[in-house]
Amino acid sequence: MSNIKSTEERIESLETALALQDQTVEELNKFIIAQQKQISDLEKKLLLMVSQMKDLKDAVAHASPQDDAPPPHYGQL
After folding, report:
1. From start to end of 1-77, where are the E strands?
2. In this predicted model, what pLDDT tens digit does every residue of 6-46 receive, in sequence order?
3. How many CB atoms neighbour CB 39 within 10 A?
4. Distance CA 33, CA 40 (A)
């Protein structure tokens, strides 16, 4: 009888541990999904910023020196 009770207690303990592990795995899975979404959003923003930087670089490269000249009224005080 003692052996059966001991076995039942061990099985119950293992079932409890398994339930806790399942819960932990589920929580970690949700966390990983949220992190992956955040990483994807950041990658999109980074690509947009790289594109904007290239556009700015092209705009500066094609700018003429006259574009940087001070306005005519500058210095007339």
Report:
1. none
2. 999 999 999 999 999 999 999 999 999 999 999 999 999 99
3. 10
4. 11
pLDDT greater than 70 at residue 77:
no
Q: Retrieve residue 28's tokens.
A: 């970690």
What three-state secondary structure class fits 1?
A: coil
pTM of the model as a whole? 0.63
C-alpha distances in angstroms, 46 versus 53, 59, 69? Answer: 10, 20, 33
What does residue 25 show for φ and ψ, rounded to 5 degrees? -60, -40
Tokens of 43: 């990658």
Radius of gyration of the chain measured on its C-alpha atoms: 33
- Res 1 pLDDT > 70: no
